[in-house]
Write a structure and sequence with these properties.
- The structure is a homodimer.
- By secondary structure, chain A is mostly helical.
- The first copy, chain A, has a domain of 77 residues: Arc Repressor Mutant, subunit A.
- The interface between A and B is large, with 63 and 62 residues.
- Chain A binds a DNA duplex through helix 3 and helix 4.
DNA sequence: CTTATATTTCGATAATAATGGAAATATGGA
DNA sequence: TCCATATTTCCATTATTATCGAAATATAAG
């Protein structure tokens, strides 16, 4: 994954409506949801919804399949997986930085096992 | 994590320069990097760099600690961890959707074990 | 106290993104 | 064919974000 692709994915998700759409689709699974159902759930005007759906689809986070008069959108889980790995590539100098996700970014080197200084969070 | 917070984190990461900064800091670990070093690595004008650093810090993805004349920025790994979990909350209807990250979103219910239809990716 | 270095704030400008009404397109059913 | 439904495209408007020079602030060193 290239940096610019990753930034596009993140920017696509970094909007209230699109993130809501994405999460609905994550929960809907492979089957997906039709545009109409999504719009109904989120109360978005058709044009606005379509704008966000095509934004998400153009970047590659979701894809649609036509079925009769409806278009069912689903998330591409593989893209998310790759995105997560990219974000934490060579992370945390080999330490376990992510309790919930476990070993995520380990795709590459994990070099630079340097002793780190204090890093408490100030005001 | 609230939806709006998550959207802010993602929007913050959804910009070439900020994502570059974030990844530098991920790789730098707890010790972090000074603003100057970051700016040098990425070739950003001081004002631009500062704009992005405070954007990232304001949202909470990174934090700075002053040390002598320098300010060292580091990522807050816990926030990222929570963000990943939020993105995949109740994901994929119990299936293993994320090979690299393993069981990520499992914080909540994992209900709706519905049989899903085909979802091949069309043009 | 003066100078040098590190970083931020200010302010103006430029660029990009979001919104939604209205019209267009596509699909299926009567 | 004609109508209803689902979704998208077009277009204009509004809102938000990014950029960076110049000035301000902060910290340390001579």
């Amino acid at each position: 994954m290239e940096l610019l692709n990753a930034a596009e994915y993140l920017a696509a998700l970094g909007h209230e409506s699109r993130l809501s759409i994405f999460r609905l689709l994550v929960q809907a699974g492979e089957e997906g949801l039709s545009a109409g159902v999504i719009g109904e759930q989120l109360g978005l005007a058709p044009a606005t919804l379509s704008f966000h759906l095509s934004h998400l689809a153009r970047t590659g986070l979701i894809f649609g399949r036509q079925q009769s008069r409806f278009i069912f959108y689903s998330v591409d889980y593989a893209v998310i997986d790759t995105l997560f790995a990219f974000l934490l590539e060579d992370c945390c100098q080999g330490k376990a930085c992510l309790p919930k996700t476990g070993a995520v970014g380990g795709a590459k080197s994990r070099r630079r096992m340097v002793r780190a200084g204090a890093a408490g969070r100030p005001a």
